Description:
By secondary structure, this protein is of the alpha+beta class. It has helices spanning 2-16, 24-31, 35-46, 50-68, 73-79, 85-96, 100-105, 152-165, 168-178, 243-252, 256-263, 272-281, and strands at residues 140-148, 185-191, 200-208, 290-291, 302-308, 313-319, 322-325, 329-331, 339-344. Helix 1 (2-16) packs antiparallel against helix 2, helix 5 (73-79) crosses helix 6 (85-96) and helix 10 (243-252) crosses helix 11 (256-263).
Amino acid sequence: MDWINQLNEAINYIEENLTGEISYDTISQIVGCSVYNFQRMFSYIADKPLSEYIRNRRLTLAAFDILNSTDRIIDISFKYGYESQDSFSRAFRSFHGVLPSVVRNETVQLKSCPKLSFQITIKGENHMNYQIVQFPAFKVVGITNRVNTLEAFKIVPQIWENAWKDGTMNSFIELFKKSDYRPAGFLGMCAGGKWGNSEEIDVQFKVIGGLSRINSNSPYSKENPIRIIDGINYLRQFQNGCCGQTCLAMLAGISVDEVIKIMKSTKWQASISKVIETLDYFGFLHKKPIYTKGRRVNLPKCCIINVRGKNKSHLMVCYEGKYYDSSSGILQEYEFENMISYIEIST
């Protein structure tokens, strides 16, 4: 399990450099994938962002230093990368709940963030529910690269990254847009050899069309949508992870259960591509996502906005300047710096 070893090597590198500079590029080289992909993978596995883990580890060790040494607090601040004692004190109190000066004068309870260690646990006692769905023939389009199997863990992530940088992936997306058909997703495939037993294999990146389209049998169309959006009736999601389905229910004027049946997506499964497919199913005219990256923008009359949540992104409806958040209620304003993108919907 080379990738498990690589993850643990990355953790060891972080641990060895908590009092110095931690290079994300070096971490990327250790694990054999892009910084972006590693950060996403780490957040998913560890249930916290990489930057938060590093900060919490430093604050944990800083507390040990305060308790077990006579070093000045300002020196400990500099040791763990803080530019001033004030910024260190604020971070320390945010994590531990007390100021660092209190730790030396009183008996207090401190928090600890232990060093992570990745391992695989295989369990087979639980049954897995599955569904087999038969689809008609569909087409795929993609590119092929010949890769040496011994270097695959290093080269394949680079191929993915380069395909996005050089516009290859965007070309695939545009190709499907021209035929009014959005890709359901990108798929990496290995062919032309047995993994571990062949010197070389073909790595193929393909855009799947037709595999999971929602609107193939829709009773609605752009000329005959499910309804004309002239108002929003607020709905609250019945469980966490159903914000996308609830947004679509508010727009379509139907129940969340009905949307879930149409999307065939339960909690945490309403990706942006699935949301777009469902908008197409309902016959709603819409534009492609606009990425705001935290900038303040003038939002259209009606749109679905994608914002940063605590651990995952979160979707809500914006209609006539009000924000219909399925978790928090109807909001009069929202912080633009938390916004990732929005999809404009015609009314």
